[in-house]
Amino acid sequence: MKINILVASRSCLFRAGVAAILEGIDWISEITEADSDDESARIWMRSRPGVTVLDEATINSSKFMAYVRHIDLAARVVIVTDDDHHVEALSKTLRLEASGYLSRVARAEDIQRCMEDVVRGRRFIPAAFEKRQREEQLLKALSPRQIEILSLMASGCTNRVIATLLSIGSETVKTHVRYICQKLGVKKRISAILAAQRLGILEVKR
Fold it and tell me: How many CB atoms lie within 10 A of CB 5?
C-alpha cells in the first residue's frame, strides 16, 4: 500500500532536499509540501498524510503535535531537529513523543530507514540521540558535591587532600568516589575522570 508524505518547513531547501531523498521510495505515492505553521495543519487535516516530516527549526513542533494528536493519536510524525547535541533541547523534543526523530544533518540512508521504520509502526530514534539521553541521565544522577569531588580528582588531588579541602572525612570522600564510579559505570578513578570529560561535566585540559 502506498502512502503520501507531508514535508513541513519554511525552508525551501529543506523541503526540496527531503523530497529528493524520498522520491525514489516506491511505496510513497505523493509528497506534499507546507511552508508555515498554519499551512502545515491545514494540509495535514485535508490530506491526512501517512507520515509528516516536520522541520522543528522553522515549524512549531509543539503546536503541530498538539493539533494532530487531538485529532488522531496514531498520526505518524517525524521531527527533524538540529539540536541533537544539546541535551535540554533534545529532551524537550523527545517529550513530544513523535514517531521518529532525525538530526538535520542525517544521511539519506538514515532518513529512508527512519521512514521505513515509522511506516511499519516502529519508533525511530537515532543511536546518537539515545546516547545523549543516557548521558543526560548520568548528569542528573551526580550531585553538586560529587561533581566538585570529580573536579578535584581531575586536578590530581588524593582522597586525603580532597577531604582537607572540603572539610569532610576521608571515608566520606571514598564513599563519594565509589558512588561516582558506580553512576558513571566505571571502576577506576581515571576512568571516572575521562567519562566526566567526555560527558562535558569536566573541561578537558590541554
Answer: 25
Same-domain status, 17 and 96: yes
Q: What is the CATH number of the domain that holds 119?
A: 3.40.50.2300
Same domain? 11 vs 62: yes
Total domains present in the chain? 2
- DSSP letter at 80? E
Single-letter amino acid, residue 132:
R
| Residue 169: all three cell numbers together | 572525612
Tens of pLDDT, residues 99-114: 998 888 888 999 999 9
Cβ neighbours, 10 Å, residue 104: 14
The 10 Å CB-count burial string (b at 16+, else e) for 138-177 is eeeebeeebeebbbbbbeebebeebbeebeeeeeebeebb
- Domain with 79 in it: 3-134
Q: Are 135 and 87 within 8 A, CB to CB? A: yes
pLDDT in tens, 82-94: 765 555 556 666 7
CA distance 111 to 3: 16
Instruction: Give the span between the Cα atoms of 58 and 35, in whole angstroms.
Output: 9
